[in-house]
């Protein structure tokens, strides 16, 4: 029996993977704290979150945290365009900028240096790293893990084998384990576009 436990939310066979909500909330808590100092010092903050092959943590954190830019593996980002956005924001009276970077795109330190060099705005990079993999699970993760665990044991009692527990459209069920490995979550640009609109 399998249970989808990955903070990256990159399995398409299920709508939710255990650990994602905890990772996003941990990231968001750090972003809120960094935003406070970024605002008071009128600087730009580049924050790198986990997500080597998938940018869902960065996307959700950036949208929820009010980031001006989100850099993820699923889409191309121009450093020049990011710098231009920061400069435009400053000219409109915005005194701080927040950029969320998925680790799969990396090089946050270099990006911060280039932004500061091009704009003259004090810019700091923070890499959250494995901080996001620990801590107390959110209620969402606890509930999902408990239900999936119960479903897995029930399936074993019923004589089922080689299944993975999934959540689809609010319902918990199971599918063939081998079949589930053939799915990779497709990227939908809607959340990125929403974040850009809300950041204005």
Write the layout of secondary structure elements.
Layout: H1 20-40, E1 44-49, H2 56-65, E2 69-71, H3 79-91, E3 97-102, H4 108-119, E4 123-127, H5 139-157, E5 163-168, E6 171-176, H6 177-180, H7 190-198
Parallel strand pairs: 1-3, 1-4, 2-3
Antiparallel strand pairs: 5-6
Helix pairs in contact: 1-2, 2-7, 3-4
Structure commentary:
By secondary structure, the chain is α/β, with parallel strands linked by helices. Helices cover 44% and strands 16% of the residues. The protein is built from seven helices and six strands; from the N terminus they run H-E-H-E-H-E-H-E-H-E-E-H-H. It has helices at residues 20-40, 56-65, 79-91, 108-119, 139-157, 177-180, 190-198; strands at 44-49, 69-71, 97-102, 123-127, 163-168, 171-176. The strands form two sheets. A four-stranded parallel sheet has the order 2-3-1-4, with helices on both faces. It has a two-stranded antiparallel ribbon with strand order 5-6. Helix 3 packs across helix 4 (108-119). The chain is elongated. The N and C termini lie far apart (46 Å). The model has no long low-confidence stretch (mean pLDDT 91).
Helical amount among residues, as a percent range? 40-55%
Strand order of the largest sheet: 2-3-1-4
Catalogue the unreliable spans.
none
Structural class: alpha/beta
Please state the average pLDDT score: 91
Q: Which quaternary structure do these chains form? A: single chain
Query: Largest beta sheet, briefly?
Result: 4 strands, parallel
What is the helix tally? 7
Which shape, going by the Cα principal axes?
Answer: elongated
- Please state the CA-atom Rg, rounded to the nearest Å: 19 Å
Please write the string of helix (H) and strand (E) elements. HEHEHEHEHEEHH
The end-to-end distance, rounded to whole angstroms, is: 46 Å
Find the count of extended strands (DSSP E, 2+ residues): 6
Strand content: 15-25%
């Amino acid at each position: 029996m399998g249970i989808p436990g990955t903070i990256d939310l990159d399995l398409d066979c299920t709508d939710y993977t255990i650990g994602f909500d905890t990772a996003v909330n941990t990231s968001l808590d750090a972003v809120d704290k960094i935003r406070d100092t970024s605002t008071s010092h009128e600087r730009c903050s580049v924050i790198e979150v986990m997500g080597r092959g998938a940018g869902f943590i960065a996307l959700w954190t950036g949208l929820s945290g009010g980031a001006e830019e989100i850099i993820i593996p699923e889409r191309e980002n121009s450093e020049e365009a990011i710098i231009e956005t920061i400069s435009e924001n400053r000219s409109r009276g915005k005194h701080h900028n927040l950029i969320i970077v998925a680790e799969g795109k990396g090089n946050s330190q270099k990006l911060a240096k280039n932004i500061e060099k091009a704009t003259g705005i004090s810019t700091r990079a923070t890499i959250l790293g494995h901080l996001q993999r620990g801590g107390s699970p959110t209620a969402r993760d606890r509930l999902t893990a408990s239900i999936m665990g119960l479903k897995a044991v029930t399936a074993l009692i019923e004589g089922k084998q080689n299944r993975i527990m999934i959540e689809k459209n609010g319902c918990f069920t199971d599918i063939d384990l081998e079949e589930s490995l053939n799915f990779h979550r497709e990227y939908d640009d809607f959340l990125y576009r929403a974040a850009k609109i809300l950041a204005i």
